[in-house]
């Protein structure tokens, strides 16, 4: 696949305006920038990812000022979510309002809004940086902030050039989704690579496309000031250049005593200034940035590396034919070089340096570690990283609860802190212990006693001019990370660092009072401590936190309140005119959901009512499309730019022709769900059953007739999980235009689905590997998530049905979801159910519809309520515990009457009262109450039965890989499968069953011995079988095989589907391709032939293509094998299909050409031709 280049042109170019630049030794200037924050696509590692950037740059623009200047930055937010910009390390003397800490000093700038930051840079020289300070956006929204000396003089030889070296990480996962996942306790995601100045480097490649490296061009003999900044979310980095040494001269905007080294260690948040002299023989030399991490038993991450190049002027392009030298890097898990690097740094003693406060007014001892709290609203739960808990990061066993709707600084300034924060941050841990005991890292009873943790917004208040000493003590509670602690608004004296537990009597003697470093980010070593002092001379609200992003999100933070001093010059001024209070930021804009292009569906010929059958022709272009929901843009697969896809609208008797053009990088087929396909099995579109998938870049034409069916069906992709977004309604109208119910004014498809942020092909892969832990984020109605879903105050769009009072509407309710049945209601309205699966029903009144995956239910709704607005709800229903639980999926739409005013006359919009999510009985009673409509053309139930099949639906386990023996009961040696009569269906993946049957070459592909009964009878619905244990182990001997069942033409078949509780108690929507079947009865418990056959409805049963076998129950069906071909039978829960709850029925040809399967049509492409 041809690699896409990065989009570098922007719709709008913003020039950085420097209104006045001071000459050396001259007056201070105003340095002004405009930052336009927007989305941009960037291609790395064969994948195009949407990232968030400033002015089209990654990293962002450098802010270059002189000490004493005033900085003015206008930030224009063109993202679909709020953000702030923090000026990392800028002291913000008396300008706390401009610090840019989200929800600490200000609320985020809403989408479409702008904010101006204005502050002075005083008493600082060197390298700082700026970055977004809401969610994980700082990964790409960042840049250098350089402060030059006012007199132009450095305490080291003036370099020929200074170069920012911004070390970061490349994430393909959307950063907002990353933040959401971490907020939910999921810390398994990792970046794909390190970066140097936004370049991944030539050690990264995909399909032999090598990534670009950062190149530093140098001249022999000249010196270069490298400003090394770590913007990464997750890791410290080692940085080296082969054949060169560095002289460390500064850190965090302060000078250091020059220190020679061949390697720099830089933690997240730190900025290290080094001089590198280009004194090696002129050639090329590699530079390396390597992430460092603690060794096991700490959780392990991949090796992140970026390789750049130092290129001497005059060196040949091929480096004189010699290999380019590589620096020798330490082991990734060796954290000691970091400790020694930081411990060797000292501040530069110079006349204007700050003095260490020798007197201490307040001492704090702060332990840094992990703990766990109960999920949700629970107050009691099982500890030790159980599913009932979420892991949090703590300071003195308190995990900081970040505000979400207000800013701490505003509340402090206004004196309205009640209910927002308290000022009782603990100044010591609740109990002393051996903080660096390595036995505490793996979860167990030892640390459980030490980690009592709670979430709270606890701050610490200091009086102005207080001398503060803090000992930061790393602990090994569940981890042994280092901790780069960043204090906003201050430089602090780093008096000492050490390994092990801090001991005041011993370690205070190590304190450096003469020339300590001044730092804004203090690296607390792994399994060690750091001692700092500072004087509270800057009033305001100052955030203190670890600069590992996961630790911030987990709660390793607090804030220091510094009170005003005795004079106006020592007090926090009021907010400046450009500051926007949180109340002014409350109006969140809605997410843009309009798409760039629409492809028209062409209907070449539509038969007039009562006229001749027509040909209805469509072209389906299947392609990728980016869609934004819940603050995240996801690549999805769609037809003609539509979600759901185009409706196929035909009249009974028409011929349908659909040209499918596959422009996605995966093969697919289109299945016409419920279309009987009489003698057109070649067009059924069941992947690897009736045809091989249409390859990427290829086309396929489906041609078939629609005979003896009226009502609602649907179509969808039938390979992997693509049907989630590749689907649409298939409507069949009566040839004479007459319905057996009052003709509606309008018919409206109501397509209920699910919104997945996880790539659907990856979801399929994960399920095939036995991972069923992924879930969608929301239900959808006609592709809309609804206004109950929101992110960062951005409310999702709802589906709106406009109605007129007194008119009737035919709602065609289709469930396209993978995982769940759905309850559907409209407040204040009732439904009359009139059809299902393309067949009429006896009208049945209800206020709620239940629709299982694969089903299509037709209901009439009369708009007879008082004209107003009324909510509709689609709510997923699932079995209760002990079955595995999933989140509550819900989508809310709106019925809007003509004439009702926009605000619903000031009244609340009525909500329908929904059943409990775990109450499955309404579904059972809804389905059990449906009956077929008696009419002159209705088909008769076959009273004679030729073949009876009894099928148990359940789960089982098989050995992973090629093993033949393994430990059962959901062990790591097994993979869970779904079964029919203890056989889990093996789907072909290189050939199609129909071809092999038609050609008479089934050998090695399938057998025809599908079992017609289970291997042994038992109490199928015993709830004790749900949790794994020895009882069901005896009953679940399972094997994978492609076992089919062959029927002669015109055979009368009866099937009893029996749900079992083997490892689960789901319902099972069983779908048979190519047939409508008579649903004679459904019941709860175990089917008993003597008792339950009396319940069979031979008079007016439903005709269905999808039969919902109730949870803990059974369903009985009959049909005549009058349609020759290969017909797939499977559960329509996607995970059950992938797990193997399927088979296929072979129906032989009848005695005449009219009862036989014709040869494949000319447009059919055989597997070897695909």
Overview features:
single chain; about 1150 residues; mainly beta; Immunoglobulin-like; six-stranded mixed beta sheet; 12 helices; 68 strands; about 5% helix; elongated; disordered N terminus
Describe this protein's structure.
The chain has 1170 residues and is mainly beta. The chain folds into five domains: 1-154, Immunoglobulin-like (Sandwich); 156-349, Cupredoxins -  blue copper proteins (Immunoglobulin-like), CATH 2.60.40; 362-585, Cupredoxins -  blue copper proteins (Immunoglobulin-like), CATH 2.60.40; 615-673 and 709-928, Cupredoxins -  blue copper proteins (Immunoglobulin-like, Sandwich); 947-1155, Sandwich (Immunoglobulin-like), CATH 2.60.40. It contains twelve helices and 68 strands. The strands form 16 sheets. Strands 10-9-14-19-16-17 form a six-stranded mixed sheet, with no helix packed on it. A hairpin with a 2-residue loop joins β50 and β51 (839-846). The relative contact order is 0.07. Mean pLDDT is 88; it is low at 1-25 and 585-610.
The helicity comes to: under 10%
Strand content: 35-45%
Q: What is the CATH homologous superfamily assignment of the largest domain? A: Cupredoxins -  blue copper proteins
At CATH level 3, the topology of the largest domain is: Immunoglobulin-like
Which class do the helix and strand fractions yield? mainly beta
Keywords: Apoplast, Copper, Glycoprotein, Lignin degradation, Metal-binding, Oxidoreductase, Repeat, Secreted, Signal
EC number: 1.10.3.2
InterPro entries: Cu-oxidase-like_N, Cu-oxidase_2nd, Cu-oxidase_C, Cu-oxidase_fam, Cu_oxidase_CS, Cu_oxidase_Cu_BS, Cupredoxin, CuRO_1_LCC
Organism: Oryza glumipatula
